């Protein structure tokens, strides 16, 4: 049986405030994990039920340099010696966009989740944004003032709705911060624009990235 990793390549963002994690998984077996460049990425094995057997590992972007760096993470089967390889790249986020399953929400309907997708300069999607902080706003539009916009749509915390977000979102909300995903709810009919930007020192010069107008229906 040929064993594989869950992904052959991981792209992690540069951050000076935290180490952005990603879970790398191997199929079956017990593995030892290591990175060829620990100044770029560090590897922390996750052991099963207190044993020394590991099929998963946490990868953390270690570099804080605003430049592209790469490393190879190796998972070595402790019985057969078979090696599994994952290429890990740490790079600066070039752009972000807001992803949603729809551009329309209904008044008094369940909240809509918006998530951030981050891209490098070549258009590749980053594998994880876990723990990074973002600033979300209902944008001021030329045709509508802020009061009118906020009367049409509002941003909800996950703690205010019956949703179970990832643990890092729970921790960010407890600290009165926002992460790479939010909930929005329609209040009355009309259109509104949601914008987001990265709240990290290395990305302070980056502008807001807007979501095409959300339309609320009765």
From TrEMBL:
GO terms for cellular component: nuclear pore. It holds the Pfam family Ig_NUP210_2nd. This is Nuclear pore membrane glycoprotein 210-like. InterPro entries: Ig_NUP210_1st, Ig_NUP210_2nd, NUP210-like. It comes from the Eukaryota. Residues 4-91, 101-206 form the NUP210 Ig-like domain.
């Amino acid at each position: 049986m040929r064993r594989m990793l869950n992904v052959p390549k991981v792209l992690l963002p540069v951050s000076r405030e935290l180490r952005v994690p990603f879970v790398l998984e191997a199929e079956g077996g017990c593995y030892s994990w290591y990175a060829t460049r620990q100044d770029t990425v560090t590897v922390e094995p996750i052991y099963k039920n207190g044993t020394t057997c590991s099929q998963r590992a946490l990868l953390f972007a270690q570099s804080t340099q605003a430049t592209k760096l790469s490393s190879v993470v190796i998972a070595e089967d402790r019985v057969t010696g078979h090696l599994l390889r994952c290429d890990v790249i740490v790079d600066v986020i070039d752009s972000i966009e807001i992803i949603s399953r729809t551009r329309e929400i209904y008044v008094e309907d369940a909240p809509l989740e918006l998530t951030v997708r981050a891209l490098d300069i070549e258009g590749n999607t980053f594998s994880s944004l876990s723990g990074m902080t973002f600033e979300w706003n209902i944008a001021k539009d030329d045709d509508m003032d802020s009061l009118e916009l906020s009367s049409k749509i509002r941003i909800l915390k996950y703690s205010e709705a019956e949703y179970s977000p990832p643990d890092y979102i729970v921790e960010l909300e407890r600290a009165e911060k926002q992460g790479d995903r939010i909930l929005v709810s329609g209040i009355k009919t009309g259109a509104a624009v949601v914008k987001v930007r990265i709240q990290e020192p290395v990305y302070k010069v980056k502008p807001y990235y807007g979501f095409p107008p959300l339309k609320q229906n009765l």
